[in-house]
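Case study 2.
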Amino acid sequence: MRNTGRKILIVDSNDAFRESLRALIQDIGHEVYEAATGQEAIDKACSVHPDLIMMDVRLPGMNGDEVTARLKRNMSTRNIPVIINTAWSMACNIEERIHRALNAGAEEILYKPFHLTMLRDVLRTYLLA
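Prediction:
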């Protein structure tokens, strides 16, 4: 998958997770953009037009399910695949938020921590389609 140069937006409020995911994705050969909040994700998606968005379900201000719904209603971002990633937790109605994100148009859910092979498979699926 090297030299494909696709743009990926990572949306997560955890700086350490964003940094490690950015390093993995850049090592595969893709360009990475980052956002820490839901509103920042919407703004970056509209300006950068990434080829894929990897978004945490729990974000400050606006959760991933809400962000996904807004992106899918916007003509300029509706066709960008959204992959929800989350650490499994019973707190904050995570199950309900995941279900709402899928109903809003998210393509699938990845549970943290995920392995490099799983990440590569997901990137192949959505970036080479």
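The first helix runs from residue 15 to 28.
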